[in-house]
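The material for today's practical consists of a large collection of protein records. Read left to right, the backbone structure tokens trace the chain's path through space. An example says more than a description, so a record of this kind follows:
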Amino acid sequence: MLDGLVKHLHVATMVSAARGPGSTKGWWLTLLEGPGYFFLPGCFLEQPLSAPRAVAVKQAPAVAALLIHWLVQQWAPPPSEQLSTNFPGSPCDPTFLLSYAPCNVICSIIFWNQFEYSDENFLTFARHIDENATIVSTQGMELYNAFPSLLHYLPGSHNTLFKNMTEQRKFILEKIKEHQESLDLNNPQDFIDYFLIKMEKEKHNKQSEFTMDNLITTLWDVLAAGIETTNITLRYGLLLLLKYPKVTAKVQDEINCVVGRNRSPCMQDRSHMPYTDAVIHEIQRYIDLIPNNLPHGAVQDIKFREYLIPKGTTILTSLTSVLHDGKEFPNPEQFDPGHFLDKSGNFKKSDYFMAFSAGKRVCVGEGLAHMELFLLLVSILQHFTLKPLVDPKNIDTTPLLKGSGSIPHFYEVCFIPV
């Protein structure tokens, strides 16, 4: 496994980048230079920031986990209700429908605010996130990253990317202002409240990471990463289930056996549903959502085999080399839930499953994503049969775009109530 990672290791010395839409550096470097959670040095992660709706994650991790589980369960049914109401068996594009639940889960945690599916603010925000995810995976953005100083002044999709980011930040700033006006220091309601209280306590600390700029960027990080990654995985997952109806039928049989029709699924069901669990893992392995991972930074000089990686180096590791390792996953280019099942049909873990990054700084939303993917997919398949508009043999499951992310082809599907 290490040989595969080393073989595809891309190392580039970190350079200083001007932050913001006006930058003439590549968009990755713009993010690397800016504040926020995902690109912060490890020291910030050690600071005692309280979790949303819990006094502290470190002191009450079980409480936080139960809260998030409850939120996901609350928002898992709405997609099924929306499908029955707005698309009763007729063809529909599932893109924004699948954004609805992840968006409301994330917004409940950080804003304590939810959106209706018809809410124009929700649709606009979701549209910007979806559009940006597509843009950053195009060859045009790869070219922009190579020649930002030249292309910055020319027309192109990069202008749309930065415009959307600006609009998203405006939306976030409005939410922060609302929280500032209603803030009760003795009764914080969500992530923003806890962050604002921490800002007030550390307002005289010039070295504090709890700043307004950091809050805005952290919220943007969480929203952009937490909504679209789940949406793309669900969208790609449904496409694969359309392509392989026998797999879908086996999942639905397991749902009928374990969950039935008269109650909502819960995370406790997963341990009794090995085939469904294997299908979800195989979806994530097969689609290879973030092929080259997010950039990591070396905080000190590292001697790795014959390589010297200097302190301050940005490292991009190819997750593809692990997720599509032929020794661990025979016929890795084939979609096969058997990759995660043993001979007895039990779920089989794999150290090569790195869909959520590698190392200590893995995706902070991994636990949430596991809940969302399981509960949402099970909820949909519990209530609907998926009907493709074309012969399953003609469904193309290769990515439409594969750059910073893997984007599936556009498709429509009919959700037939069972």
User: Anything to note?
Assistant: The chain has a mean pLDDT of 80. Residues 212-243 form the longest helix (32 residues).
